[in-house]
Specification:
alpha+beta, two-stranded antiparallel ribbon
Length: about 120
């Protein structure tokens, strides 16, 4: 897998100190346009975001997991996406985001219960 496009949260997204409300329709529209423009070779595979404080966890929060599951469902409306990749950037010490810690996660549906998400650390 290679990442060929990544973009910010959309013009009507709302950022707060410890959360963000995404512009879901803009995200979905961009992903669909990339898929159609590439004749199906570019598919939506994941999402990235930041946890803003150096003391924040690199682990996805419950809210993150809920968003990832919803985004994965939307991605599957465009193309088959069996796994969803999540990247979380966390500032490293005093450098803020000059050299962030990058955590990579793979999200998939559970084999035993398709409603449940399984989130595992990814290697890259």
């Amino acid at each position: 897998m290679s990442v060929t496009e990544a973009w910010g949260p959309g013009s009507v997204s709302e950022r707060r100190r410890s959360s963000i409300s995404l512009d879901w329709d803009a995200e979905f529209s961009r992903a669909r346009q990339a898929y159609e423009r590439s004749e199906g070779t570019i598919t939506p595979v994941g999402f990235w975001h930041c946890h803003p404080e150096p003391t924040d966890s690199e682990r996805p929060s419950d809210a993150d997991l809920g968003a990832f599951g919803a985004l994965m469902e939307r991605a599957n409306e465009i193309a088959h996406v069996p796994i969803f990749v999540a990247v979380i950037a966390v500032p490293a010490g005093g450098s803020r985001f000059a050299a962030p810690r990058i955590a990579k996660w793979v999200i998939r549906r559970s084999d035993s219960c398709r409603r449940n998400l399984v989130c595992e650390r990814a290697r890259a």
